[in-house]
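Reviewers of the previous submission asked for a worked example of the structure-prediction workflow described in the proposal, so we include one complete record here. The input consisted solely of the amino acid sequence. No template or homolog information was supplied to the procedure at any stage.
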Amino acid sequence: GGLGLYSTAHTRRMFEDVSLRDAKSEKDLAQIRFLMETNRSQILQALQHNPAFAWAKMHDHPIENHFTLIDKTSAEITQMWEQYRALIASPEEEQLAQAWYDKSGGLGIKSVSDAAAAVKSGAWDTAETVLISTINPTYRVGNAASAELSAFLSQRGKTNGIAVDANIAATNYLLAGVLGISLVLVSATTVVLIRGITTPLAQQLYKVW
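From that input alone, the workflow returned the following structure tokens.
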């Protein structure tokens, strides 16, 4: 009945609002880190096109391929960051997320863009300097900050998972209790109805005999 529908809706809401949110936050965080490493890798590969080195001739693809992928990846990082921020559920998480963003130099988007622009203009030494002095250090510091955020999300997921399981179990116990009481009431009502029918009938039969 209505209680069963409530129990189902409550369970689904707890799962979607808590468990799925936690899982998505952790997934988004891991994906952003992966995309950041993709961007750094593309700068490294673009630098290998430097005509001052013999190995530049070994590349069988245009350097523009790396720029295209950097633009695409940076756009994905921005989108996923906004999606993740929309799921932030506490001031502590907000603080950890902002620390990661700041320490990583805005998830490395600007420094990677600066290095790519230097490569495009043929300023190979400048691009390498940006990689060594900006990208690599901010990534290293940012990785430590993201590890703190990741640990926080992981622990929250475990804690919330236990709370969700306990909440669902309590709802199920309540439902079982209400159903038990309903069965007792139905049984009592049935007994009363049967007695209401059989007692007058017995009295009539007694008079006849």
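Confidence is low (pLDDT under 50) at residues 3-7. We consider this example representative of the routine output the project will generate in years two and three.
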